[in-house]
């Protein structure tokens, strides 16, 4: 720099002063202002397209709603709540009346012709027993509310419960004739509370059951299972329809055993036990494939001979102690393995058993009771 120029600069600095005109704070303030201005420009450039897009979207929704309202008119609003139709079942009074009619008119042993003459032609069908393969013929009656022709209530029908619940059927009644000449019947209906299917069974021996519970015997004088009455009749060599309670009181010899191939599925009922307890004159009892509760056996106070076959277990033999007259006991065809309890029987003098099964038979001989090996 020349001397003259330096002189000019010094003179200018003296005029404006030594402090700079633009300070550091001024520069920072200027930069902040410039940055904010650019940011506003950027923001303004972005929100305008977004706003336009949102406006178009909302407009499309409003237009579609108005168009659909015009194209598909809505039903007029009502202050009344919507009506919901409930499935109606058959009134139980009608079911009960029909069931009573069936029970009053049907008798076990009726022929097919007699049944159809009483109840109408019905729907005839045939089948085969799952037990022994024998064939049977049956007639089905449906007491229905609707005219649904597809309804079938054969025992193997998987959908029969729905028909009752839907109110298509109030009650069905089937009568079955087996190949061996026996017959039985059953009725099905929705119970009074409408929650499950109830059953009335008419067995071939005259016993009537409701939901598996014995009600009465339709063939015989005493209200016991036909199986029991027929065994009493066989023991007395008398027709079962003539067996009375008086016969039970004077009976001295009773055999309870299967009388036919189907009897092996029969069971003694609590009603039967009550009649057995009345047999105060009974002296000999033979049980094959059946046993009696100890409470029933103990009531036979005059019993002298007891023969039991094909029974797994008789219970605690010492409970027979009240049978003070029991002198002979045959248990050789049972699975009984211990007999020490029999020493409590005061009159017992002979026991027939299988020494290979019974582990403590010697105790009987030690107490003066004769032990006879099974033949």
Describe this structure in words.
With 375 residues, this protein is an alpha/beta fold. The protein folds into 2 domains: 126 residues, no CATH class; 148 residues, Ribonuclease Inhibitor (Leucine-rich repeat, LRR (right-handed beta-alpha superhelix), Alpha-Beta Horseshoe). 33% of the residues lie in helices and 21% in strands. It is built from 10 helices and 13 strands. The chain has a 7-stranded antiparallel beta sheet. A 6-stranded parallel beta sheet has the order 8-9-10-11-12-13. The radius of gyration is 49 Å and the shape is flat. The termini are far apart. It comes from Salinibacillus xinjiangensis. This is Leucine-rich repeat domain-containing protein. Keywords: Membrane, Transmembrane, Transmembrane helix.
Write a compact overview of the structure shown.
With 375 residues, this protein is an alpha/beta fold. The chain contains ten helices and 13 strands. The chain has two domains: 92-217, no CATH class; 226-373, Ribonuclease Inhibitor (Leucine-rich repeat, LRR (right-handed beta-alpha superhelix)).
């Amino acid at each position: 720099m020349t001397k003259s120029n330096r002189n000019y600069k010094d003179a200018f600095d003296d005029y404006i002063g030594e402090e700079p005109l633009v300070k550091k704070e001024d520069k920072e303030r200027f930069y902040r202002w410039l940055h904010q201005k650019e940011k506003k420009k950027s923001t303004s450039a972005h929100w305008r397209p977004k706003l336009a897009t949102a406006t178009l979207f909302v407009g499309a929704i409003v237009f579609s709603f108005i168009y659909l309202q015009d194209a598909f008119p809505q039903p007029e609003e009502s202050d009344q709540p919507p009506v919901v139709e409930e499935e109606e079942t058959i009134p139980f009074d009608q079911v009960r009346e029909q069931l009573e009619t069936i029970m009053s008119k049907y008798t076990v042993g009726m022929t097919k012709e007699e049944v159809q003459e009483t109840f109408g032609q019905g729907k005839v069908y045939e089948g085969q027993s799952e037990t022994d393969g024998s064939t049977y013929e049956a007639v089905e009656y449906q007491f229905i509310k609707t005219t649904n022709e597809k309804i079938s209530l054969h025992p193997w029908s998987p959908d029969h419960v729905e028909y009752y619940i839907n109110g298509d059927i109030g009650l069905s009644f089937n009568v079955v004739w087996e190949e061996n000449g026996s017959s039985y019947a059953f009725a099905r209906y929705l119970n009074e509370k409408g929650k499950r299917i109830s059953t009335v069974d008419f067995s071939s021996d005259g016993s009537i059951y409701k939901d598996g519970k014995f009600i009465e015997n339709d063939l015989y004088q005493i209200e016991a299972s036909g199986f029991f009455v027929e065994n009493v009749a066989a023991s007395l060599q008398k027709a079962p329809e003539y067996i009375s309670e008086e016969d039970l009181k004077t009976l001295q010899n009773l055999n309870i055993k299967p009388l036919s191939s189907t009897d092996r599925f029969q069971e003694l009922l609590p009603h039967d036990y009550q009649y057995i307890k009345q047999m105060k004159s009974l002296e000999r009892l033979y049980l094959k494939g059946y046993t009696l509760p100890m409470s029933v056996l103990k009531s036979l106070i005059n019993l002298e001979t007891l023969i039991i076959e094909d029974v797994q277990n008789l219970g605690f033999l010492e409970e027979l102690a009240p049978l003070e007259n029991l002198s002979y006991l045959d248990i050789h065809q049972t699975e009984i393995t211990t007999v020490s309890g029999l020493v409590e029987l005061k009159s017992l003098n002979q026991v027939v058993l299988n020494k290979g099964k019974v582990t403590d038979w010697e105790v009987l001989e030690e107490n003066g009771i004769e032990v006879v090996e099974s033949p």
